[in-house]
Amino acid sequence: MIDDANACSARRNHFFRRKPMRVEEFKTEQGYFLGRRRLLNRAVLGWGVASGFALSRGEAAQGAAYPPLIVRPGLALDRDGREIELTQATSPGLKNTFVLIEDAGGCRPGPLDKCEEGNYLLSIHYAEVRVGDVQLGGDCGCDEIEKQFVCETAVFSLERLCDEACPCTEKAGSRKCRCGTTDSCCKECGGRHACLCQWATEATIPAHEGELCTWNGYRIALEDRVGLACVSVVCTGNPCAPIAFKSINDACGPRKILKGNELLYDLIRGEDLTRICKVSWAKWHRERNRMPWDEFVGMFGVDVNKPEQRPNGVTTFSVEFSGPVRADSLQPDVIVMTAIFLEQATGWRQLRRVPITRLVTDPRVEPGAPPMPPGMTNYMVVVVRDAWIREQMQRGEDSWLTERDFTVEIEIRGDWILDCRGVPVDANSRGLTAAPTGDGVPGGLFLSTFRVERKPNDPQQAGE
Predict the structure, then answer these.
(1) Which of 130, 138, 169, 373 stands 20 to 30 A from 384 (CA)?
(2) H or E, element range at 193
(3) DSSP annotation of 43
């Protein structure tokens, strides 16, 4: 039996008939459910921004040098598991924003007029304020005033960045599984369950961070702030609006993101990855029928009815991506085109590589769509040696493409193609579908094959 009340993880009411309920009992009841909910929030869900809190600029007031900063509605959990909810767009200002001042007693909230020009970390805090006056009668005639409700809200803080560097809250994972970790669940799979068991065993229960402190009529969670952005602040000299936000320097790095179920499933499926969304030869990808010779050479800019034509090497073999990719990563070696011939006597496959010389990477932007960022593209076109086209496709004499039907194999190396974030394109091919590609993992190999009719010996037969 537990004798020490400190050994209890939590205390809740035990109800029975005719139990007297005083203020203390109701506080215990409410505190129990608040505490348990916040324990689950911080131990299971974690903390950080769940959604919203987008930053924008409003319209500058007449005579103001800078427009006001606006924080849009959002939801976050702080380290203690408290829900920080902003239900309407709010501008940080004199009544709802304080400056974090460090002294011998630690951090404390200070007024905005103590703020100096420079770079700051803008954070949001859980806050509550008691509202609704209730007058309690007193025996001496001095009525006591109480508050009917507790309103949960949010306030902002500014913390000076001494080294001017904006902090990053998403640190690299530090969980490591010890070598030799095994268990009875899966001896063949390297003890994956044992790793999970080790991580859970060594994890600590997130502690309660402490009580709220009072500032400007609010009770605030001073230490449990959630970072929103790094901003530049200037002094205005106006006692009603002592500061202005000069610029938003970084509205992502300081934010710790709370990874909910929907976000995690999207990440597992690779929804954030750039893919190959279209290839120009898609209708022939792994098709049983052979591509007609006329259509094949037409993709190299050759018209069989115009033998005098001189192709420039630009083909219509093109690849389109679902998002911007770095144009400098689209080197000729990211795509390989191979013609495969069957050696009649033995059945060996003989391979000949098509000489790709360069890639045209001019982006394709729909009318009305925003322009592609500098150095980025979403499109590439294959260019081959024009002499090879004339030799293998235009001249009447035999070539490697004349003897028999052949197979073309096109390989795109996704690991070498980087999107605008520097992440390899998810290029893995999937079954009979040419595009979109992807298996939810960055990089991979896109492989496409199709069969082609042999080149006629007599160019006049090409159109028959």
Answers:
(1) 373
(2) helix 192-202
(3) I
Maximum CA extent, the chain:
119
Q: Which letter, b or e, does each residue of 395-432 get, where b requires 16 or more Cβ atoms within 10 Å of its Cβ?
A: eeeeeebeeeebbbebbbbbebbbbeeeebbbbbbeee
Q: In this structure, are 279 and 226 located in the same domain?
A: no
Residues 304 and 353 reside in one and the same domain = yes
How are the residues of the chain apportioned to helix, strand and coil, as percentages rounded to the nearest 5?
15, 35, 45
Q: What are phi and psi of 120, to 5 degrees?
A: -135, 155
Q: Return per-residue pLDDT of the chain as tens, 464 residues.
A: 555 556 677 888 888 899 999 988 898 898 899 988 988 998 888 899 999 999 999 888 777 788 999 999 999 999 999 999 999 999 999 999 999 887 756 678 888 887 788 999 999 999 999 888 776 766 665 667 777 888 999 999 999 998 778 888 887 666 777 766 667 776 555 567 777 787 787 777 777 667 888 998 899 999 889 999 999 999 888 888 889 999 999 999 999 999 888 888 888 888 889 999 999 999 999 999 999 999 999 999 988 777 777 788 999 999 999 999 999 999 999 999 999 988 777 778 889 999 999 999 999 988 888 889 999 999 999 999 998 888 888 765 667 787 678 999 999 999 999 999 899 999 999 999 999 999 999 999 999 999 999 887 654 444 44
What is the rounded distance in angstroms from the CA atom of residue 454 to the CA atom of residue 407? 10
Domain that holds residue 450: 272-365+374-461
Integer Cα distance of 113 and 116 in angstroms: 8
Backbone φ, ψ for residue 157 (5° rounding): -135, 155
- Do 438 and 319 lie in one domain? The reply is yes
**Tokens representing 94?**
């004199």
Q: For residue 419, which of 221, 284, 275, 239 has the smallest C-alpha distance?
A: 275
- Fill in the amino acid letter for 30: Q
**Nearest CA among 284, 285, 307, 287 for reference residue 463:** 307
124 contacts: CB under 8 Å, gap ≥ 6: 53, 71, 76, 84, 86, 154, 155, 156, 157, 225, 226, 228
> Does residue 192 lie in a domain region?
no
Number of domains in the chain: 2
